[in-house]
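Hi all, long-time lurker, first post. I run a small reading group and we've been trying to get comfortable going from sequence to structure in the token notation. Rather than ask abstract questions, I figured I'd post a concrete chain and ask someone more experienced to write out its structure so we can walk through it together at our next meeting. Sequence below, copied exactly:
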Amino acid sequence: MATAVLDSSGTAHPLATWSNTDAAPGFTLRTFDLSAYAGQTVTLRFSGTEDFSLQTSFVIDDASLSTS
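-- Answer (accepted) --
Happy to help. Here is the structure in token form:
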């Protein structure tokens, strides 16, 4: 699973990448500092790949943005 910010030109800026070796027993809070993109229109992208022999499930429960 990967999380990235896409800027207005469509260029992806990776925030984090996880694999099945990063398994947690439950939900884990993840936070990212997006202040470098303040004032810009961006897209957050969550993507994942798997194959039939090594299924991995990633669940995104809530996503939010806040200013401070």
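A couple of things your group might point at:
The two ends are 28 Å apart (CA to CA).
The chain has no helices and three strands.
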